Amino acid sequence: MLTIDPQNIPTRDMHQYLLGSVAPRPIAFASTVDADGNANIAPYSFFNAFSSNPPILVFSANRRVVDNTTKDTLSNIETTREVVINVVNHSIVRQMAVASIQFDTGVSEFAKSGLTPIPSDVVKPFRIKESPVQMECKVKDIITLGDEGGAGHLIICNVVRMHIDENAIDNGRINPHKLDLVGRMGRAYYTRASGDAVFTVVQPVMKVSIGFDALPESVRNSHVLSGNDLGILAGLHALPTAEEVEKVRENEAVKALIQTCGDDKNALRTRLHHYAKTEIGKGNKELAMSVLSFSDKF
Q1: Is 89 within 8 Å of 131 (Cβ atoms)?
Q2: SS (H, E, C) the chain
Q3: Is the pLDDT of residue 205 over 90?
Q4: Where are the domains of the chain?
Q5: Taking the model in full, what pTM does it have?
Q6: Which terminus of the chain, N or C, has fewer Cβ atoms within 10 Å?
Q7: Whole-number pLDDT of residue 232
């Protein structure tokens, strides 16, 4: 394993190791205005939501690693204490990339990227019309994290108005497939948060589960089950009862495996573990746990 001491590595390399490891990250497409009302937009991937009451977003406008300069976004926010955070979906990702170019101060990234400025309700900076979610913010605080290239400025934003494309909402909740967000990774890598890339992990947290340590040793040491398989089983609220385990004998698939393996108990246990893994994949974790417990009888 590669071990890194941040004090003994060039900042540009540390930067890329961090970005490649802490990924994917959401993108804050920040819209600001200067003291004269001139608009600026720029993307930042050191970004996340930190509180819902009050609604707080945090992003970092870092000093450039190359020359230790800062972007217009930071200067504008220091002046106005306002910003609009627009999200980036797949349909505008290349326009966002154009807006990330280091144009001279005073050049409109709206004009260069072809994106459309629209008025905000509460703050002076414009919203980006093409973004499916736009959050108007008052800046609560700016925390300077350093004074050398790569150092961040933590900008803490209080959301005072939120606008969401109704086409991205199902039953009062955002549908990630319809929102189609893009996440930033290291170097030139991005990821699309929709389609097959999106999956669910349903784990009730208010009711205590059995945990990994309660799984039978034969299950914990299985050569068939993966860590994710074991995690699913560890999330069960109870181990199967003796009656539930014995009922497995009536399962047609289990009957077939018993007949196929004959007196080869090792083969049967392995085949039962494979069958349990298949059932876990189908969402039948209770049955899978019963099958695994049943396999210990051989």
Answers
A1: yes
A2: CCCCCHHHCCHHHHHHHHHHHCCCECCEEEEEECCCCCEEEEEECCEEEEEECCEEEEEECCCCCCCCCCCHHHHHHHHHCEEEEECCEHHHHHHHHHHCCCCCCCCCHHHHHCCCEECCCCCCCCEECCCCEEEEEEEEEEEECCCCCCCCEEEEEEEEEEEECHHHEECCEECHHHHCEEEECCCCCEEEECHHHCCCCCCCCCCCCCCHHHCCHHHHCCCCCCHHHHHHHHCCCCCCCHHHHHHHHHCHHHHHHHHHHCCCHHHHHHHHHHHHHHHHHCCCHHHHHHHHHHHCCC
A3: no
A4: 6-197, 212-295
A5: 0.89
A6: N
A7: 97
Q: How far is the C-alpha of 25 from the C-alpha of 46, rounded, in Å?
A: 7
b/e map of 146-175 (b: 16 or more CB within 10 Å)? eeebbbbbebbbebbeebebeebeeeeeee
Token pair, residue 269, equals 């246990």
Note the pLDDT tens digit of each residue in 123-158.
999 999 999 999 999 999 999 999 998 899 999 999
- As its CATH architecture, domain 6-197 has Roll (2.30)
pLDDT recorded at residue 70 = 87
Amino acid at site 239? L
- Residue (of 162, 142, 152, 190) closest to 25 by Cα position: 190
Q: Tens digits of per-residue pLDDT, 235-283?
A: 999 999 999 999 999 999 999 999 999 999 999 999 999 999 999 999 9
Place of tokens 């799984």: 215
Angle at 174 between CA 172 and CA 180, to 5 degrees: 155
CA-based nearest residue to 19, from 46, 58, 53, 50: 46
Residue 111, Ramachandran bin (φ over 0: left; ψ between -120 and 50: alpha; else beta) = alpha
Token digits for 256? 């077939």
Q: Which tokens hold the place of 76?
A: 């504008």
**Per-residue pLDDT band at 195 (split at 50, 70, 90):** very high
